[in-house]
Design a protein that fits this description.
single chain; about 600 residues; alpha+beta; 5-stranded mixed β-barrel; 4-stranded antiparallel beta sheet; 16 helices; about 45% helix
Length: about 600
């Protein structure tokens, strides 16, 4: 009979359970330390548990476009608003339609709640329009009958104008934007109405005789727009908000905006060449060289071509016709000058601080709303009802956990200690990870998520029961404790993996096909299922291996839950040796 090879482990054996226990202990210490280091020692709570704000938005259509308020545009708006608020880290925000014209936004209480409230109804209609003329905020139209020649005047200061995508203004001279005179205004409006692209308008004439009246263009539409531009007072908030409303992207329009030093100016703008849909990504960043906050934008493939086309035209113009205005919801947020042809990206610079730059980048990244919205109401939601439901849920969970522990103690006796310790490790890991996921990905614990955690108690206990029953089966076959623990593990491992895979697959499908609070249930169920596998492999099995070496479990004490007599074990199978003794006396002849 060949001797067994040294160092060979039995099937399914684990020679060093201490390694697995050390690994899970290090993970628990690291995660717990990270939780205390981050300062978030409790999970973030959803609106049903922590309260928050409920905002009601009512859709409105521009005159003549009443059909725009339809189901398709409302659903699109819901998706964009949801991405905006969750992009700010306000997870578990609920966005849903109510009736035909209303959208309800429920925002959980949190650090970014105020920002989310400001952004939910922002339309974010973004257009890049060529600048045809610029004037001071309340400059009146020049009187053509005056004998004095109107001279170009600065728009308020000699502060340099912002430039597009890093292009710098000329140093050593003032780059203040000249105010358009009557000649400049009239010719710019006329050219804009004739063609969609900007053309040089020339400079204001120094002679009074060459300065035509603003109304002598012969085109009523041109005259009306010119008069609107001349009469616009950007210091009046009502005129500012109404300046660019209801204007089509293909129309020439007027708008208001602040210059680099924060003074209001009025703009005469040509048709839009690029819009917000052509922006692929936008991000508010701090420019170290200039010491200011800007918004960097990256264009899509088609948007880059459009932007290259407009900048190639504007780069050959003189101020202010070499500027393009970045118009957001009818207001000029920046009007950089173009010194070179650009295509891939651009920047928006102006009087931004960190919050306004990051807010604008977030809005542009997730797109413009297809409709305009009025805020109908902003209500504070209390957590009183959710707190009562949470208390009831926790009581139900405690009762269920107590029943599971009682069953384990009565049926498995000593083995119940291993199951209880494993449940404790699983609960600790679940709590710590949930607390860390709050600041990391915006995870918020709501009532369905609590239900998912309660359901996970049964899933975790089921894995222990599978392993314990496999060990008992081996003992019933006549094997001693230590071989039974190792031989039972491969069979139990397969069953546990298959069962947890099915549970995780169900949770993943539920998470993908549902929205809102149901996703919280699915996420928690999937997380606890993964942790079940980790705990069984790195804690339950190693602890079982170590306890099998003790006298209490190894000898099958009656309170260990592995008593061979109580389990009805068969006696060990022993092979009988063959005997070679003769059946009778030996014949001398044969000898």
């Amino acid at each position: 009979m060949a001797a067994p090879k040294k160092g060979r482990r039995p099937a399914g054996g684990q020679s060093r359970p201490g390694r697995a226990l050390a690994l899970i202990l290090i993970a628990m210490v690291a995660l717990t330390g990270g939780m205390f280091w981050s300062g978030h020692t409790t999970p973030r709570l959803g609106i049903d548990l922590a309260g928050g704000t409920s905002i009601t938005l009512k859709a409105k259509a521009d005159p003549g476009q009443e059909s725009a308020v339809n189901e398709t545009n409302m659903n699109t708006a819901v998706g964009i608003i949801e991405r905006r608020v969750n992009g700010l880290g306000v997870s578990e925000a609920e966005v849903q339609t109510q009736g035909r014209e209303n959208i309800i936004v429920n925002i959980p209480k949190g650090t970014n709640e105020k920002q989310a409230r400001e952004q939910v109804g922002t339309t974010a209609q973004l257009y890049f329009r060529p600048v045809l003329a610029v004037a001071a905020a309340e400059q009146p139209a020049p009187d053509a009958s005056s004998s004095a020649s109107p001279k170009p005047t600065a728009s308020g200061s000699a502060a340099p104008k912002p430039t597009a995508s890093g292009a710098t203004a000329d140093k050593g001279k003032s780059t203040a934007t000249p105010t358009a005179t009557a000649s400049t205004q009239g010719r710019a409006v006329t050219e804009a109405l004739k063609a969609p692209s900007p053309t040089p308008t020339g400079s204001s004439s120094p002679k009074a005789s060459t300065t035509p009246k603003p109304t002598e263009t012969g085109d009523p539409a041109t005259n009306a727009l010119q008069q609107k531009f001349a009469a616009l007072n950007c210091l009046d908030p009502k005129q500012r908000s109404a300046a660019g409303q209801g204007v089509k992207p293909t129309d020439t329009t007027v708008a208001c905006g602040k210059n680099a030093i924060g003074q209001w100016e009025k703009y005469l703008l040509g048709p839009a060449e690029v819009d917000g849909k052509d922006v692929d990504d936008a991000q508010g960043v701090f420019d170290q060289q200039r010491g200011m906050w800007i918004v960097n934008m990256e264009f899509t493939g088609s948007g880059a071509k459009k932007f290259q086309k407009i900048t190639s035209k504007l780069s050959t113009q003189s101020e202010p016709q070499n500027q393009f205005a970045i118009v957001l919801d009818g207001e000029v947020v920046s009007a950089p000058s173009v010194r070179t042809v650009l295509s891939a990206n651009a920047e928006i610079s102006g009087s931004f601080n960190q919050q306004s730059a990051q807010d604008l980048g977030n809005i542009l990244s997730y797109g413009a709303l297809p409709l305009s919205f009025d805020t109908q109401s902003v209500d504070t939601v209390t957590a009183a009802l959710g707190g009562e439901q949470l208390q009831a849920g926790l009581i139900a969970g405690a009762i269920g956990l107590a029943l599971v522990i009682i069953y384990l103690v009565v049926y498995y006796r000593g083995l119940s200690l291993i199951a209880i310790l494993s449940l404790g490790v699983s609960a600790l890991l679940t709590y710590v990870i949930m607390a860390l996921l709050g600041p990391a990905i915006g995870f918020a614990l709501n009532l369905p998520a609590v239900c998912g955690a309660i359901v996970a108690i049964g899933i975790t206990a089921d894995s222990f029961i599978v392993y314990f029953e496999r060990i008992r089966d081996e003992i019933r076959e006549g094997r001693t404790m230590r071989p039974a623990v190792e031989r039972a593990w491969p069979r139990a491992r397969r069953t546990i993996l298959v069962s947890d895979f099915v549970s995780f697959l169900a949770a993943a499908v539920l998470f993908l096909v549902t929205v809102g609070k149901v996703q919280g249930f699915a996420f928690t169920l999937g997380l606890t299922t993964v942790l079940d596998v980790v705990v069984v492999f790195l804690f339950t099995k190693p602890v079982m291996t170590l306890l099998a070496r003790t006298t209490f479990f190894g000898n099958g004490h009656k309170w260990s839950g592995l008593d061979p007599k109580r389990l009805g074990a068969k006696p060990p199978l022993r092979r009988s040796r063959r005997t070679s003794a003769p059946a009778g006396p030996v014949d001398p002849k044969e000898a």
